[in-house]
Amino acid sequence: MKRVMIGAMLAVLAAGSGGAQAPKEDPLTRPIAPGYADRWLKPQPPMRVYGNTYLVGFTELNVALIRTKAGLILIDTGVPQGVAMVEANIRRLGFDVRQVKYILSTEPHYDHGGGFAAMVRDSGATVIAGQDGATSLRLGRALPEDPQAAHLDAFPAVPKVRAVADGGTIRLGDVVVTARATPGHTSGSMSWTWKSCEGGKCIDMVFASSLNPVSAEGYRFTDPAHAGIVASYRRSFATMAALPCGVLITAHPDQSGGDEKFAKLSAGAKPNPFLDPDACRAYAAKFSAALDARLAKEGVR
Q: Is the residue at 44 inside a domain?
């Protein structure tokens, strides 16, 4: 009798709630740094930048998509809570998320790689990163030597990550993407280059990792123990300045004027505002000067 009464009560409760159950929280898309990260996640429509290259991210976080004859290549994913928006943008372009075969990492921080685990689950894609970047992604956190490690949030780990060396290539269909090591901002930072063709004209494309010399509070680039980090920055500036570069896309669009270029392209500007053979040199020079200023500031006692 008691079981009957309990069953009846549960039935009444279920009926009162329409029988609906609260959706289970997805641990792979649980928001990281909510509130703070919102500033990066203003939605923007997907846009073809040039040829087979598209942007499918946000106003303050770039996520790039490369179309090939054998599937799609994604560069970065943004934060976990933004994955659904990235996937929606991919679908708006007429693609299926399951067509994504590779996800390339620029830097193993939660704002660029936090959504990798969810995207891998949804697409079945393989994640590719530099050696240190791969280690960090497998751990789900920044490495201790990262200048920002002390104030970065952990993110969902990616158990399987393929490491690639500087100059290594990833081929999918008719597209070859080359890894370009650009450490400093993180030891695992990697930029990526490929060619996109439109109207018979092929352009060198660059998706660049951040070169911004920022750190956690109290970190000093002038500390002799951090001389290797400064040297990494110097090499990365030289690498970026020397790259064949017809179109530059940066992980944070505002670091290279990408936000303004996107707005102009959306408005139908001609010629394509992303076409700029000096963009990579200007990007390197901007943050080389920023590092010099940081070192000079630290030198003042």
A: yes
Residue 20 is predicted with a pLDDT of: 52
Q: Which residue in this structure is represented by tokens 């976080």?
A: 61
The one-character DSSP state at 110 is: H
pTM: 0.91
Give me the domain span that covers residue 100: 34-295
Q: Is residue 201 part of a domain?
A: yes
Tally Cβ neighbours within 10 Å of residue 22.
Answer: 6
Number of folded domains in the chain?
1
How far is the CA of 241 from the CAs of 197, 207, 235, in angstroms?
22, 13, 10
**Are residues 192 and 178 in contact, defined by beta-carbon separation less than 8 angstroms?**
yes
User: Is 19 part of a structural domain of the chain?
Assistant: no
Contact between 216 and 173 under an 8 Å Cβ cutoff? The reply is no
Reported as a single tens digit per residue, the pLDDT across 39-48 is: 999 999 999 9
CATH at residue 90: 3.60.15.10
Q: What is the pLDDT of residues 71-128, one digit of tens each?
A: 999 999 999 999 999 999 999 999 999 999 999 999 999 999 999 999 999 999 999 9
Q: Identify the sign of the CA torsion 157, 160, 166, 170.
A: negative
What does the alpha-carbon distance between residue 145 and residue 295 come to, in Å, rounded to a whole number? 18
